[in-house]
Amino acid sequence: MARVLILEQSKSMRNTLRERLEYEGFATEAAESGDQARDLCSEHRFDALIVGEGSDADPMGLPFIVLDCDPSIERAIRAFRSGASDYLTRPIDMNRLLGSLRTITEPIAEEPSSVVTTRPPRARRAKTGAVEPIIGSSPQIERVKHLIERVAPSEARVLITGENGTGKELVARWLHAKSPRAAAPFVEVNCAAIPSELIESELFGHERGAFTSAIRQRKGKFEQADGGTLFMDEIGDMSLSAQAKVLRALQESRISRVGSDKDVEVNVRVVAATNKDLLEEIRRGNFREDLYHRLSVILIRVPALRDRAEDIPRLVSYFLEKICAEHRIAPKSISQEALSLLSAMPWSGNIRELHNVVERLVILSGESISANDVKCYC
User: Fold this and answer.
1) Is the dihedral of CA 8, 14, 20, 26 positive or negative?
2) pLDDT by residue (tens digit) across 18-39?
């Protein structure tokens, strides 16, 4: 079980983070100050550190994630250059926080609590049983499932397209879980979330002293995913200069860390995703045509939720069960009239929006969700 140390001044935030992380299977300890965090590190082994607002303690050799109230690019750049694995602003996106933690940790055997370790972060090794199911039986989603079954065993690169919130990451995780690489790391990088100044360091890593705040060597996402799958989300938002470096890595199966003149061989299957029309981006000069053809050996388009409305009742049922368990409340039912109203909605935010609406209904409704609840809260 991976152990996470939470360094956060706010007691309510500490408690919220601990409750959610422990429900998700992490062991946690919490500290209010840097001194208290160091004391805990001398007593326990930790695999990751979450650093909250106002906390500037030494990460103590642990891979760490920064939670901040300031969404400025300058703060994000400072965090990444100091070695942060991710930078999240408040209100915290718990799904992204959990995904980041799972990227830098993996299930490990219990060790004596007196042992202190500063081992480098390791990518989480995906298992089929840990991947959420793809819910639905519409022809559109059945085609996606069929493509996953056919493509996953191969080494072909895959480009997944679709609107925001349709489940592109889930498709990528199933491609990995059903592949011969399933026991190796699945590493995710959101190309849109990383400032252009840092994308090269994030993907390829850097050597100590490569730039002012490079206080130690750091492996990039390509090296972290060696032997496994690298999922490059929102690749359509990557700068042209970064695209050129990714193209070289794909052509030669080798990368060079920032500040190094040595090449490192990597064995990585790249799965990319975008919500953009890359052919249109190529026409506008925003995306390299040669990189597009490298990435799109197989194309999988994930349908919008409005195009498979017949799957909504099954999705609602799945989310109801899952969300009630997450909030530790008794299971709730939903009326047929309420389901009909939900099925008729446009769902511009797709499955992500549906999940949020069901969670809202679970929290605000009574024992059963009625059509009136849907009209009031949606």
Assistant:
1) positive
2) 888 887 888 899 988 888 888 8
